[in-house]
Amino acid sequence: MGKLTGKVALVTGASKGIGAAIAESLGAAGAAVAVNYASDKTGAERVVEKIKQAGGKSFAVQGSVAKNEDVERIFAETGKALGKVNVLVNNAGVYKFAAIEAFSDEDFDWMFNTNVRGLLRTTQEAVKHFGETGGSIINIGSVVSHIHPAYSAIYTATKGAVDSITGVLARELGPRSIRVNSINPGLVMTEGIKTIGMHEGEFYEKIKADTPLGRVGSPDDYGSVAVFLASDDSHWVTGEALKVAGGNR
């Protein structure tokens, strides 16, 4: 019996990176896991297969959290395949770093529609499914809302919103036995970070130097934290933004 046996978890944006690591950890702890993806079907199916090979139950479900009709379908398909969701991990997110004058309206809409509106929309849908026993919502924020790196105005704004939303919803949903917390990573070596070249160079070295534990993050650093927040071990924890960044704050 794992800590999450009997629970059904939906992890958005879980085909790779932090989302994939969290999905695999939730599965290893006994949860049945819906692995959501927007476009990377191969990656999502790879995560599902890892969970199943470890003895867990999982399936992949396509959909963009930025689209209302997709959100409704994601939950409907998850319910049919695994049962009613009682753990939601709002991991899906996008980012772009650029000088403030270089950002377009499309950039603004792209980041806010996924990182903020998408998170709120999935939460709206989740609370319909949680039922009387409540559940756990885990938002993925970022330490950027505290360290304020240059060239990140829109992305940091979205993650500042996540911090505030987490606190508001913890108060609002607490009476319904729904806990709401966030995990706020620092720089994590994901495929996306490598694609935009942030895995090396001056910025990378500065982040590493500013981190007391002497390295940047790995996706695997986040799975056990998510398991804690999803499990009854954290029954008295809500409204918290946990900085999981090796001490970089």
From TrEMBL:
EC number(s) on file: 1.1.1.100
Top EC class, one word: oxidoreductase
Keyword Repeat part of the UniProt annotation: no
Transmembrane spans: none
Keyword field: Oxidoreductase
Molecular function terms from GO: 3-oxoacyl-[acyl-carrier-protein] reductase (NADPH) activity
Highest taxon, organism lineage: Bacteria
Name of the protein: 3-oxoacyl-[acyl-carrier protein] reductase
